[in-house]
Amino acid sequence: MPMREFYAVTITGSVYKVCGIRDVDTENPVIIKIASNGNPCKDTARRNDYPEGHYVGILYGMLCRFGRRHETPCLPRGVDPGFWPWRSSTIAALFLSKEAAVNCSMESDLQLYDQRWKVATDTTLTAIGKQHPIFVIAEKPWEPQ
User: Fold this and answer.
1) Closest CA relative to residue 38, chosen from 5, 12, 18, 64
2) In terms of Cα–Cα distance, which of 61, 69, 59 is closest to 29?
3) What is the DSSP letter of 12?
4) Is-contact 55 136, C-beta < 8 A?
5) 87-110 residue pLDDT tens
6) Residue 128 contacts by C-beta under 8 Å, 6 or more apart in sequence?
């Protein structure tokens, strides 16, 4: 059974819950910003905060949405990810646990693929796997393609 959800923390301290299910109305994966610097977001009732895209990619050191599975991670070198319907700030870490993600978001000086949470991030990437029907991980998710 594919992974149902994970949590991404950005270097700005945002925490996103990324769900491996599709919204009933839009058929897009559900992504909800649940916290910022450890503080819960006020309107977490919205099921899908971000625009269209049937897949969620982990590449260029960020989360992004895109419409067709083959659009990524096979992008040519130097392609500006700005064309995607939505992308996050730079990812510091990925987690399987909401509590761990929120705790991480309260730390200072978060960095791309922050080594303080390397084990949690690598464990999350392994749990997602290479064949997930919604989540797509680039071969080297922390580097430009």
Assistant:
1) 12
2) 69
3) T
4) yes
5) 577 899 999 999 999 999 999 999
6) 3, 6, 58, 135, 137
